[in-house]
Amino acid sequence: MPVADVLVVGSGIAGLLAAIKIGEHFPSRKICVITKNEAAESNTQYAQGGISVVTDFLNDSFDSHIKDTLIAGDGLCDEEVVRFVVAQAYDRLEELIAYGVKFDRDSEGRLSLAKEGGHHRNRIVHCKDATGASVSSVLLQKLATLPNVTLLTNQIVIDLITRQPTAWHSRAGTSCHGVTLLDCASSKVSNIFSRTTILATGGLGQVYETTTNPLVATGDGIAMAWRAGAEVSNMEFIQFHPTALTSFGSNPCFLISEAVRGHGAHLINQLGERFMFKYHPDGELACRDVVARAIAMEMNVSGDSEVYLDCAHIAHHLPDKFPTIYQKCVSLGLDLYLEPIPVAPAAHYVCGGVDVDMEGRTTIENLYACGECANTGLHGANRLASNSLLEAMVFAHSCYQDIARRLDNIPLRIESLEVKTSQPLQAAERTLVLQTRASLRKLMTEQVGIIRSEKGLQLTKTCLAELSKLISKLATGIVDFDLQELRNIIDVAQLIVDQSLKRQQNCGAYFNIDHEVHSHFPLERVVQD
């Protein structure tokens, strides 16, 4: 019977850091990391910009970073959590440096600090424009040196194994004791029992037709936690990154980092006009919700499917500062000295998720969550740029600290459970699943995107209910990778819609034309759509 002391689901920065810290602290304990693709495939791998950390104490301060985070969150951040995260940032950065992450430095050896939207100081540490990939590579190398840590790749978790000592209709007292998973290569279904489980499964961008998230980002951790009875909040706050290469038809869309605007690039419309100052005094460096909504409204008014990022005046800096972005543009035939980059918003980050406290504990006993799948209270209604990797680092550390205190006193419960037999979909069934997934993503983009309405949300709610019934019927007796991902996508889509319908006032990344209009977006500009 497969067992582990600690199970970590996900191999992004949050999951890797938690596993490394726990593995080092408990060299005789068995730690197991599960990921449904190759180990490096995660949202972390695609993070370009960097990590927001106060390091220049002459020109920056904790208070300034806290203020910027609270403003971006539009009144819904948990200020205690914000202060907690900002205060820990420098120590967590030092740990990454000790592990071997080589952040960019200036000619005098000081950390090179970039500026991004919503920040009023330069405080983003980075590794060119491939920070996430650099961090992921170093952490995977570190993980490989720990003999008590097992990494299982190409495994999709189907559900959590939970125990409910109270009546069946009550969620009180639910505890987690492992997971049921499907081996994507062998199609074998198995149970792994554990003392504690950490969800670090990342985001859900693949719920939308246009996203910067990789194919693995299907909201798995949030969906399985919700099915088990965990509290899930703030799912209506989906952050759309303002500048993605959406017109080239790739999934995921290639991201043009916010740091490019921080370095001086301008957003312009089809007429060549800089338009952002019509919406916010910070122009291109306003918070992401403001910039994404402004771009959406410019496109609505003009009928165009994109705006442009003018980099001509900084093009000579791009090969050195942003080599990944520069090479991508060159490969697409874009001459950045002569022509702007066509960009549009794309689904990027969920600001809510599985509710956790400051130790990373969910409302289910022995179940933790960290990273994008967790709702910590840091982001409120809209995440401040480059606070995502920071949050993952801090709460991975919190999970580790709490587990280190408790692990010796947590029993390992092994139960005799029926193991489902994997049964592949028939060709027609697989076609139905893939077509349903494509239709759902299109529906979510059209009706539950940057600008929403009560009619669109109600329409989507009805459609999702029918899809859920269809897939539930199809899933009876079948365990299949594509079907499991679709099940998770439907679950998190329903959470997004249901929590959108409950929100009665526009805030941060949530904007509904039937509610009170955000002060930066006059009603007449919305109605023209």
Keywords:
14 helices, disordered C terminus, FAD/NAD(P)-binding domain, alpha/beta, seven-stranded mixed β-sheet, 3 domains, 17 strands, five-stranded antiparallel β-sheet, 529 residues, Flavocytochrome C3, Chain A, domain 1, single chain, Methane Monooxygenase Hydroxylase, Chain G, domain 1
Q: Can you summarize this structure?
A:
By secondary structure, this protein is α/β, with parallel strands linked by helices. Helix content is 36%, strand content 16%. It folds into three domains: 3-236 and 351-409, 3-Layer(bba) Sandwich (FAD/NAD(P)-binding domain), CATH 3.50.50; 244-345, Succinate dehydrogenase/fumarate reductase flavoprotein, catalytic domain (Flavocytochrome C3, Chain A, domain 1, Alpha-Beta Complex), CATH 3.90.700.10; 427-478 and 480-526, Methane Monooxygenase Hydroxylase, Chain G, domain 1, CATH 1.20.58.
Write the layout of secondary structure elements.
Elements: E1 3-9, H1 13-25, E2 31-34, E3 51-52, H2 62-72, H3 79-99, E4 124-125, H4 131-143, E5 149-152, E6 155-163, E7 175-183, E8 189-199, H5 220-228, E9 232-233, E10 238-245, E11 254-255, H6 258-262, E12 266-268, H7 288-302, E13 307-310, H8 318-321, H9 323-331, E14 341-350, E15 353-355, E16 367-369, E17 374-375, H10 388-406, H11 427-447, H12 454-475, H13 481-502, H14 523-527
Parallel strand pairs: 1-2, 1-8, 2-5, 8-16, 15-17
Antiparallel strand pairs: 3-4, 6-7, 7-8, 9-15, 10-11, 10-14, 12-13, 13-14
Helix pairs in contact: 1-4, 1-10, 2-3, 3-10, 5-13, 11-12, 11-13, 12-13
